Amino acid sequence: MRDVAYWPKTFLDEVEGETVDDGIKFWSLGGPSFVYRTPETTIWIDPYSYGTPDDAVPGAYRATAIPVKPDEVRVADIVISTHDHVDHCHDGTLVPIVGNTEAFCVAPKSSAKLMREFGISDDRIREVAPGDSIQFRDVEMQVYPSYDPNEPHAVTFVLSSGGTKLFVSGDTWDGQALSDVGKEHDLDLALLAFGRTWYMGVEEFFDVAQKLGPKTLLPFHWEFWRNHTGDIGELFQHYYRRKPDFDLRILLVGDSLQLCA
């Protein structure tokens, strides 16, 4: 893209060449996009490898580099889309990944509809709704409601593997099911979208985090779209004032963490 630089392929080589012997390893690709790897499975979460969309609202430029070119991806088993917004379900990102691997997509009704319009065949799409569960190799994916005010069909996920649990939030705001997730699961990691306009502000962000009760909270989207970013300094001020029981960790583009059971 002209407005954002791509990283060299050496980063993708690092991700795809990594051997995960135990637990999970998890990379941030900027904004909502992550790669989740286990000893047997590679999952791309809400991948978006594109710059500023042509129809973006005025001033909402992508503010982070793009670490991966999607047509170079060769290691993928599953692609998750939490909802149908362009930075969570993008044809120029999904089609090459699905076309160059054996991966299938897991998505709610809204995203699945777009994927079919992109030309992805039905046998490569597993449409899900809250209450569904999918077991694939060493990963269990449980589907829960989302409370995205801009997308009523959005979903959230809990990914369980190797004794670890990750909550995948998409752009959800607060809602009853998030308390249920916190009660049902001893979460190791929780993703939550933080920012302005389209995302939770700092008070609601921490209210939701308290309901989920993860060991480590991972804010995202705060850095991604110009004019819709979150104040990371304010986030840490609230964190140290509230003194919650969870850790707060920031993953920049390309950063990773590894968890073992």
Descriptors:
single chain, 261 residues, alpha/beta, 14 strands
Task: Give the topology.
Blueprint: H1 9-17, E1 24-28, E2 34-37, E3 42-45, E4 78-80, H2 91-100, E5 104-107, H3 109-118, E6 125-127, E7 133-136, E8 139-145, E9 155-161, E10 164-168, H4 176-184, E11 189-193, H5 202-212, E12 216-220, H6 232-242, E13 247-248, E14 256-259
Parallel strand pairs: 3-4, 4-5, 5-6, 10-11, 11-12, 12-13
Antiparallel strand pairs: 1-2, 1-14, 2-3, 7-8, 8-9, 9-10
The percent of residues in helical segments reads 10-25%
**Low-confidence sequence ranges:** none
Distance between the termini: 40 Å
- Sheet with most strands: 7 strands, mixed
Give me the Rg, rounded.
Answer: 17 Å
Structural class determined from secondary elements:
alpha/beta
CATH class: Alpha Beta
Q: Please write the string of helix (H) and strand (E) elements.
A: HEEEEHEHEEEEEHEHEHEE
Globally, the shape reads globular
Mean pLDDT over the full residue set: 97
The CATH topology corresponds to: Metallo-beta-lactamase, Chain A
Number of helices in the DSSP assignment = 6
Number of strand elements: 14
Which homologous superfamily in CATH is the superfamily?
Answer: Ribonuclease Z/Hydroxyacylglutathione hydrolase-like
Just name the CATH architecture: 4-Layer Sandwich
